[in-house]
Each structure stands twice: as structure tokens, then as C-alpha cells.
Amino acid sequence: MGTYEIAPEQALESAIRFIKEGRVQGIKLEGGLDMAPTIARITRAGIPVLAHVGLTPQRQNALGGFRVQGKSTAGALKVLQDALAVQEAGAFAVVLEAVPADVATLITRKLRIPTIGIGAGNGCSGQVLVQVDMTGNFPPGRFLPKFVKKYGDVWGESLRAIEAYRTDVKSRAYPAVEHTYPMPASELSEFERLIGEEKQKP
């Protein structure tokens, strides 16, 4: 946020910097009809743009929070209008976020470019899900959107491993002999003699 909203020229400058310094092959930005001139400016410069309409997280305060978009006829028409605008501006694909599945399916049919759904049903051309969410790499009690499916429990497994490590360290079970580097006994004896730590004979 703040790298493209002021003007299309600012957005193009940011995109060029991302390409040159970040060595990326394209950029993504949020916004529909209002961002179409910006997308057109960037794509005319030869930089691919992935658009993002529906729920736009960077603008969620203006949308009344993280709310489903396109639930009414007027809302669905607005999402379609945004998707068509970014397509005409040159976006190579568009993310549809938090849009009713039926609406996303119909919008996908109306576009020439692919749609990538997140919380928009399986009628989109493809899907995206945040890795932290899908792998369960977050503490218990965190709010999750309805569309998130946990495919793993990285947090739980990490916690189990950390607790086991702590137990082993406290009991001195770790590091064990197999985790250490040996020294020839004669060298160790000489080292002990030199520092006055010779083993006391019984």
C-alpha cells in the first residue's frame, strides 16, 4: 500500500523498481475500475499486472471491514464491472476475493483472462490460499476467514518439537555424544594437563 495509489506514474515507477531491484516478472495491485488507468500505464510499459477485485484487503476500512463483496445484484454487477475494467486495461489475470461462488463463476465465464479465487468458490480458473493459513502455522484462537482450509498443523508440530527440545536440553539428553565432535584421548589429556585440570587418580 502506498506504492501505486497516488498516480499511474507513481505506480509505474514502483513497478519498474520492483522489476529492476526485486527481479520480479510482474506485479499485483488491488482495485478495479478506479485502478484501470494505472494498470494500463504499467502494462503499456511491458510489465505484466495481476489485478485484484472483490474484497481488497488494503482497502478493507473503506469496505466496512473484511466483508464479502458482491452479495447483492448491484454488488455483483460492481465486481463484474471491476473485473472487465482490469481486463480491458491489460491485466493478464484477476484475483476474485471473498465473492459468492455463483457470482465468481459467472464473472469467470464473462472474462477472457483467468480468475484466481480466494474465498470465491471452485468456479474460478485457479485458486490461491495463504501458505501460513493452509499449513496451520499460527497460534490457536487466530481468526480465520470462512474460506480457509487447514491442510496441516505446522504450529502444533513446531510447538511439540520446541517443547521436546527444551526437555532434552534441561535433562542434558541433548546434545548427546552423537551430536558432538570427539578429540583424541591423548590430546585431551595434554590439554587438561596444561590447564591444570588433570583427572585425579583414585
TrEMBL record:
Q: Which UniProt keywords apply?
A: Transferase
Q: Which reaction does it catalyse?
A: (6R)-5,10-methylene-5,6,7,8-tetrahydrofolate + 3-methyl-2-oxobutanoate + H2O = 2-dehydropantoate + (6S)-5,6,7,8-tetrahydrofolate
Put simply, this protein is called 3-methyl-2-oxobutanoate hydroxymethyltransferase
Q: In which pathway does it act?
A: Cofactor biosynthesis; (R)-pantothenate biosynthesis; (R)-pantoate from 3-methyl-2-oxobutanoate: step 1/2
Record keyword Transferase present: yes
| Residue stretches spanning the membrane | none
The family database entries (Pfam families) matched by this protein are listed as: Pantoate_transf
Organism whose genome encodes this protein: Cryomyces antarcticus
> What domain of life?
Eukaryota
Question: In which family does this protein belong, per the annotation?
Answer: Belongs to the PanB family.
Q: What is its EC number?
A: 2.1.2.11
